[in-house]
Amino acid sequence: MHEVRGFSRGVVGSGLSGAARAVWAKHDAGTDAWLPLWRHMADSAAVAGLLWDRWIPQSVRLLVAEALPGGMGDARQLVVWLAGVHDIGKATPAFACQVDALADRMRAAGLAMPYRRELGMDRRLAPHGLAGQLLLQEWLEGEQGWPGRCTAQFAVVVGGHHGAPPEHPHIYDLECHPELLRTPGLSEDVWRQVQTELLDFCAMEFGVAGRLADWGRAKLSQPVQVLLSALVIVADWIASNRDLFPYFPDAAARTDDERIAAAWRGLDLPEPWRPEIPRESVAELFAARFDLLAGASPRPVQEAAVRLAREMPVPGLMVVEAPMGEGKTEAALAVAEVFAARAGAGGVFFALPTMATGNAMFPRLLTWLDRLPVTEGQRLSVQLVHSKAALNQDFDGLMRASRQTIAAIDVEGTEELPPPGAARRAAPAELVAHAWLRGRKKAMLSSFTVGTVDQLLFAGLKSRHLALRHLALAGKVVVIDEAHAYDAYMNSYLDRVLSWLGAYRVPVVVLSATLPAARRRMLAEAYAGVAAGTYRAVEEADGYPLLTAVAPGHPPLMEFPGASGRASVVRIEALDDGLVVLADRLEAELADGGCALVVRNTVNRVLETAKALRERLGADAVTVAHARFIDVDRAAKDADLLDRFGLLPSQRPRRHIVVASQVAEQSLDIDFDLLVTDLAPVDLVLQRMGRLHRHRRGARPERLREPRCLVTGVDWAGAPPEPVRGSVLVYGRHALLRALAVLAPHLGGEDTPVRLPQDISPLVQQAYGERPVGLPQWAGAMDEARQEHERKQTEKKRLADTFRLGTRAKAGRPLTGWVAGGAGDADDTRAGRAQVRDSQESLEVIVVQRHPDGSLTTVDWIGDGRGGLPLPQDAVPPARAAKAAAACGLRLPLQLAQLKVIDQVIAELEEFCVRAWQSKDSVWLAGELILPVQADCQTRLAGFVLSYSPIDGLEVRRDG
Asked: How far, in Å, CA of 154 to CA of 132, rounded?
C-alpha cells in the first residue's frame, strides 16, 4: 500500500472523547449501519493524500504549491487537512438531529439537541458545508490566532464542498441563528469542546499543527481555492462510497491501513499521463505517432508548430491558422505532447464544434494514444464526453473492455451501473473508460477526453460543481478545433474560460482555417489576461499560414511557416436561385459523369432541392445529408458518404449529387468534382470549397477537371443582391452581405479565381474587418445591416453575462458567491447547452414504432439485428432493445421549440409516457421523451404532421 504520510501509526481516533466519537457522519436507513464523523474525516484525508500522490497531475500540484510558504510539502498537507475537516459542520445540532437513534447516542454523551421537527424550517439555514465553514473560521481565529480576514480563503473550501461556495446572505442568516451550530444552555460548552476537539484532532493527525501559523499569512489565489475545493469534493465522493468504505458495525474490526488499502485497490484509478519531451526530430515524431504515406514528411505548419512548442519560454497558448487539409489535427496532438511534458499536464481535452466531429475525432485520438510511449503496464483513462457518447461504437467497446465491479458514488440521484464485460482492448498503454470516471459530473476528470466545445464552455457557466470542471481542465492540454465556428455569444464564454485557463497555466492549442484577425487578438488577450488592444501586433499579422504563441509574462510570438505546396484555383460563378435553373445546370455539368455537392443553409431547402433533382436525374442519383436523422441513420449516412466520396472510396459513383446542409462543412473528409453552395459567411464558403478536389485521384470528367464553385441562394438582381430569407435567418444579413462583397470580384471572371490557400486569409480579414466593402451603391443597405448586426451582438453579450462566470478576484479574496445567481445543475443538459450556445432549448425524442395492436418495437429498418425488437410497456425493456431504441434519438426542428408551441409539444409527448420505463433500472430510456410513429413513419404532433424516412430524414409540415 502507498503510505499516507502525516497520519499517526496508532489507531485513528482512539484518543478522542466519548462525545467526539459519538458524532455521526453517514447513515443507511435500510440497514441502520452508520459511520462516525472521525472515521469519515480520516477516510477523506487518506483518499486526498492518495489522490495527490497518485492521480493529480504535476501541473496542478505545482500551482497549489506556489501559493504556500512550504511549497510542495505544504500543498500536500493542506489538501489532506482540508479533506479531513470538510464535514466538521456535521458536528452541529442542525445536522445531527436528522436520525433519532444516532442523535440519542449523542444526547447520551452530553450533546443535547432539539428533535428535527422542533428545529423546523430553520434547519435549512445551516447546511453542513456552510456550518463547517463558520466553525473552521472561528477555530482558525480563536484557537490559532489567525486574522479574521484571512480565514475565509481556506474555509470556503469546506463551505463549498457540495458544489457551490456559500453566498454572503447565507452566511449572514446562519450567523443570526447560532443555536443551529450549538444548542444553547448547559450543553453549549460541550458542543464547542467537541467541535474544537475534532478540529484539533485533524490538525494533529494530519500533520498541520506546526504549519497553520505560516499559512495564516498566505494569500490563496482564486484558481488555487477552486482546485482545493475540487480535490476535496473528489476525496469526499470517494470516501462516501460504501462499496469502498463500509459502514459500522461491519467495518469496525478493520485496521486503518487495511481499510484504506482495500478502498484504493478497489477504486483502481488510472494514474495520470506523465509524458517526456520527445527528443526525436519532427519527422521521426510524426512517423512514430501518425500514419504517414510512404515517403511523406511533416508539412511546414506541423514542423513549425512542434518547433515553436519546444522553443516557447513556457507552454501557453498557440493559435494555428492553416488551410484545410494541412494536418492541423496531427500538429495539435504533437504540440500537446510537447506542451504536456514541459508543463506537467496529465492529459488532453480535444474540443470540437459538434457531436459528429467529436465522434470522428475519437478513434483518431485512440490511435494516437496507442502509439504514445508509456511505462509498461500503464493505464490511461479515456472518455468521449457528450450526451450520446454511450452510443458511439468505439467508446462502447472501450467501456466493455474496462469492466469494474464497484459502483460509482451516487452524486445525481441514481447509481451508475457498471457496463457488461467483454474482451480487453490491446494497446501499448491499456486504455480504459474507468467506471468511477463516468457520468455528467466526472467524465471530464479522465486523462484524455474528446467532446463538444460545450464541455469547455461549461467552465464559464456558473453552475454547481463548477470546481470539478475546472480541475478537469487544469491538469490537461486543451485543444480547440474549428475556432472560427463560434458566434459572439459563445465567444464571450470562450474568452472567459480562456482567462481562467491562463490563470491555471493550462497549455491551449487553437485550430482554425479561417480565423478573423480581431478574433485572434481577442483569444490571445483573454488567455494572457491583458487589456483589450494590448496585442495589436497579433491582429496586424497578415501572413498565412500563421502560428501565434502567447506565453504568460512574455510578448507574443508569430511565425509564418508557409503552406505545403498543396494549392488549387477555384473558379466561382453566380447562379440564379431556382430549382429548375439548378437542375438544368447540374444535368449539363454531369453529362459525362462526376460527383457534385450542393450545400443548402436550411434543411427545408435540402429536401426541396433533392426532390427536384430526383425528378430530373433519378432517385438513385441523389443523396441527402443533414442533421434531422435519427442517430443511427445519421451515422450510417456519414459512413456511406465516406465510403463513396472519401479518400479511399470503395465505390465512387460515376454520376451522383449529394444535397447537404452544413454537416458537409465539418467532420466529413469527402471530395467532390463540383460545388454548388448557398451564399454563407465567407469563412464557411471557404470551408465548403475545401470539399472540392480535396484528394488526388484519377482523371475527373473533362468538364470538371478544374475546381468550380457555383454560388446561389441569392436574388442577384438587387443592389446589393439579396440572400434568400432562410439564409438570413440562419446567419444574419450583415455577414452574408460582407461575404458577397468580398467574393464579388471573383464571381464570373476567368482571370479572378479564388486561389487556395493564398486568398483564404485576405478574404476572411476583409469580410470580418471594420473597413467598408462592396460597391458604393450598396453602402446604404450594408450600413443598415451592420447596425442591426451590432445591436444583436450587444444583446448577445448582455444575455451571455446572465450566467457567465466572473473574472477572478485578487489573491486572498475568498470564493464566496462564486456561482451566485447561476444555472444550478444545468451544465451538461439541454438547458445548459442552450445557455452557452445562445440557442433555444431544443427538444430531442426517441423514435419508436407503434403497431396497430398498440405494441411498440424499435424501428424496423435499422441494421445489425436491432430493428423490430419488442419494447414491452409493462416492464423495463431488455438492455439490447432499450439501447437500440436509444440509438434512435432525433432532435426536433426549432419550429417545434418555439415559445408558442413548445408547451403543447411537450405536453403531447408526455402523454405517451411508459411508466414502467421510468426507473433507475431503465438506464437507456428513463426520462426520455418518446415519439411513436406508425408503420408509414408518420405521426401528428401539436398541429404538425411529422414524416420520417431513412433516406430523407424528418420532414415537418403544418396539419391541414
From this structure: 12
